[in-house]
Write a structure and sequence with these properties.
332 residues, 12 strands, homotetramer, 2 domains, Alpha-Beta Plaits
């Protein structure tokens, strides 16, 4: 309460709290009175305390999420996809080009991914682009190409759903539905993905706090789909040397708060090819359940993000190292 | 080019540039060579220069937007809505509650808004909420209530489109379609709004640069709808005393770069009721075309954002001041 | 407390709190226990609660500053300097070049500042520069030039103390000692300035929260110098269109929290000359006690920050407008 | 140049550039003219181009640092300190309490550090504290205690210089002089440290870009001291779950740009004890030359930062793991 709050102000709030079934513990200090509230989270949080002039500040103590939390489920969630499993103690590599450009390129990339030991294949058929004048993806044709890459290699497919109206279409082709950073708080899409029978790869929003990210996952779990893979892909900061700032601390932090698997996307986090291998190693060492990296057979012909894509050779070399390191750390 | 780039590396790039019809001016320094490129923006920007190892950095000089720029149209865009006009030299006030809760409350707010001199009325029927357990809005019922507020007062209605599938529904009721901060880069929604015959109020994304915001507007103009009102609503920074940080410099900056009108939302920018009146004055003094403020007849009963809503009395008092200040500054 | 905290854990903390004379109010919920603590701020805040594994989080409720707060002194602090007064209801303009380059230039600038109605004159003799290869200021020679500008015009001088060892030297020449953004948390310098008999202009650090800024002022007041002028000069964010982001909300926010005067520096906040006049107006309208602007008789010859300096003509024109606006708003 | 720049405007700038011995390459496009400039960095960068109204933007292409760059010295700098060496291919651990509190505690911590294999010992005698009411360190008494810890264990001492006037005092006791985040741009202190005959541990500023950090190191090298150890300690972002955001990408990025060794401080970066071991592993895997961690024999008695200090047991356990991992990665 503000300095100067009267006994009447305090009583008014306390009786309001009692009305919604909450307990109110009043602590009176020399300058300030603090009211501690214990009660049903949703009911209490919807009360407009701050509209009362005598209230100075409302500070929530409880975490606002439930189903995604370790308190709700201590056992880590493992999500099987094809022959891979994300979150079961292994370290899963998802690789592929930023966007699907043509069949030859995609099949070549998928074969190289498979040969080097990747567990899933990624590629964008629908691309979110800052400029309306940039290449926006091949759409359904891209999805068909991805499906062919799967039949050639057996690798399950991860691809982005850009529009809520395309969920069914993308579901017909993909094994994992990706929610991009820009859609992390597209709540209606999250809800619909909660009804799908596919795992969801949920990228962290560019300026989303860890709490908001977990709340976005909560939207999906709330509707019954608990196969959510969290993906840290860099947050926006003042630093301009890298495209975004990879928040590596988020890995052990989220592993402590939630039972959901967490992977890292160092390609989008940095936008710099040379940084991808050291950051994949760092992600593994920090306890991530996997990484998602951009790899392109011919980066110079890429229609997007050529500067951050590994070549097939770079990727192969990195995979050799990562496998050894994973084995050393007792991970598959 | 990187230090150590060879004559061959340079020639390769130059001939690549010639292939897409661009001019390349090579400047050789003691340590570095710089290639200046002049050519068709879209063609040149899609070239994967950074996939060439000899290239150190690509720095775009041209602005990436066209239709929204002052170079394309020097004359400011004025957007008439009902009896109001946004961007024509006046200072327009949009007021109303955060969310539509019931008819009595909404009509009371609309009457107060009208009486105090607001030009448009706002209210959310679909609410984006961080938590799946929070009130999500009344949906179509909320739109009907807003329509009734309009028939009672004559004030045009601004309300948010949260889902691309609701554009038609919302268009049937609203006079201005609002794109929320979380949807600023929902590119498919932007495109569809480009085909609508209604003005669009485009909020700046929480972590969007001014350039990205203008590019989002470009998506709408590209499809033929040039009635876009930009709305600065605070950006996300490290400061926690206010919910976001109102970027007041963006007002004169955007007015210089673009012909589109720009308004300010100090309620969402700060989350603090007491800051709304001084920031409305500041927005006016900085050259904004208007403000959008939250006002609620009974903030203590608000289902969202009670802490940032003005009471009717506060609003009325603020309007008296703003009118005088606007008149003094030669604005309507 | 964490979920699973035992009765023993709680008792241990409570008795620890009693030892330092604090009251502890224990609230037990279904999942969590919250201990509300009322006691001497300094004693309680120094206790290492978070080193106890049963403690989940410590949330301070009290503000950590005292002497700078409105609770300590409700009356606004007015600081007379020469014929000017900062914080007494007027709107004070401090103007001058970024750095002192030579006597002719400085005297010309000071005369123009005086003629247009500025209350104080600014100029840097010691310059903090990111690069060791940039011009670092004229040092004591610069201070002498500033003193001559004062004798020519009568305007009091504001200049930066860059090094704690120079406090006495600078005090011999200057009327107001400026602490730059990079020294806002140079605590030993702050303490020494607390012993000086001159007003201190304390710039907000590039990434300082409002609370940290007020704590920096508290260091100065604690030693007995309560003539502190706070100066908002932009904070560092992801936006690159302006050099920093002017936090205009900080003005009414700080005026509410503290009795100290607050001014705005739009030149450093934005780095863009064209934005200075609209932001000066916005600062005035938001309730600032003044502005500090860069002005240079010949910006093309400036050794630093030419791009953000107003010419004498620009400045004069802006002053005419500001005076009218201040008068309209009932400010001097 | 701005659209509308005349031939005369362009010629004026070109002849200005010729005057300082620079070459100017003019590229004329349909809408814009670009002038490419090749010349002496310092001379060109000091020209006030942006004071010319016809100039739209100045974009530096060359990096502003020299002595710290890989181009200047390709060979990594290895810095021997006592029996340790930082930057020579090994992985060095610096451990110790946040602040020096008393001799018993410090000697116990130093023995534990030594026993577990740390290479250097750290502890603060002068503490920068946000609040003037917090414990500010023991000063010279603290330095004496640190010296005793060194004679007991043989571990070289790292401690912070808080005030430029204390450089000589601290140099008498310490083996490595630490510059804290708040002093990273205390340019006069950096310069003086450039004359010292001790290695400098330079922490990255809370909101310093990588470029600014390297420029700060350049200040030290410029005066002749090239024994600078860079220390990444987290940057300030909007995320509040951790105290700062550890910028792990900065490690491989800086290793590519500079020959100087880079270490990581995960304790200050996160403020969360549990995150320290995984982030130490991540730092090692990302290529850092070492880590600096807080460790306290009795965190509950710590006078600062108890919540982020490892206990001796935690530290010992982490060291066992790190040694194995370093050996596996071919590091000492």
């Amino acid at each position: 309460m503000r300095e100067g709050a009267t006994r009447k102000d305090i009583e008014e709030l306390v009786s309001l709290l009692h009305e919604v079934g909450a307990e109110a513990h009043v602590s009176r200090g020399e300058y300030r009175t603090v009211i501690g509230v214990i009660g049903d989270r949703e009911k209490v949080m919807q009360m407009p305390f701050e509209a009362y002039p005598a209230v100075e500040k409302v500070i929530p103590i409880m975490k606002p999420y439930k189903l995604v939390s370790r308190e709700f489920q201590d056992e880590p969630t493992a999500i099987p996809v094809g022959d891979a499993e994300i979150g079961g103690g292994g370290f899963t590599i998802i690789a592929g080009p930023c966007s699907v450009e043509n069949e030859a390129q995609v099949v070549e990339a998928a074969r190289a991914a498979k040969a080097a030991g990747a567990g899933l294949f990624r590629g964008g058929a629908f691309k979110p682009r800052t400029s309306p004048y940039s290449f926006q993806g091949l759409g359904e044709e891209g999805l068909e190409i991805l499906a062919r890459a799967r039949s050639e290699t057996g690798l399950p497919i991860v691809t982005e759903v850009l529009d809520v109206r395309d969920i069914e279409l993308v579901s017909r082709y993909a094994d994992v539905l990706q929610v991009g950073a820009r859609n992390m708080q597209n709540f209606l899409m999250l809800r619909e993905l909660g009804f799908q029978d596919k795992p969801i790869l949920l990228k962290r929003g560019m300026s989303a706090t860890i709490e908001e990210w977990l709340m976005a996952a909560e939207y999906i779990l709330k509707e019954g789909n608990n196969r959510v893979i969290l993906c840290e892909r860099g947050i926006r900061t003042f630093e301009t040397a890298t495209r975004n700032t990879l928040d590596i601390s988020a890995i052990p932090m989220v592993k402590g708060l939630s039972h959901l698997p967490v992977i890292v996307d160092p390609s989008h986090a940095t936008g710099v090819r040379e940084l991808v291998p050291p950051l994949c190693r760092a992600a593994l060492a920090a306890g991530a359940d996997g990484v998602m990296v951009e790899m392109h057979p011919h980066p110079r012909e890429a229609l997007c993000d050529g500067s951050q894509s590994l070549t097939i050779d770079d990727f192969r070399e990195m995979m050799v190292e990562l496998k050894k390191l994973a084995a050393f750390l007792g991970r598959r």
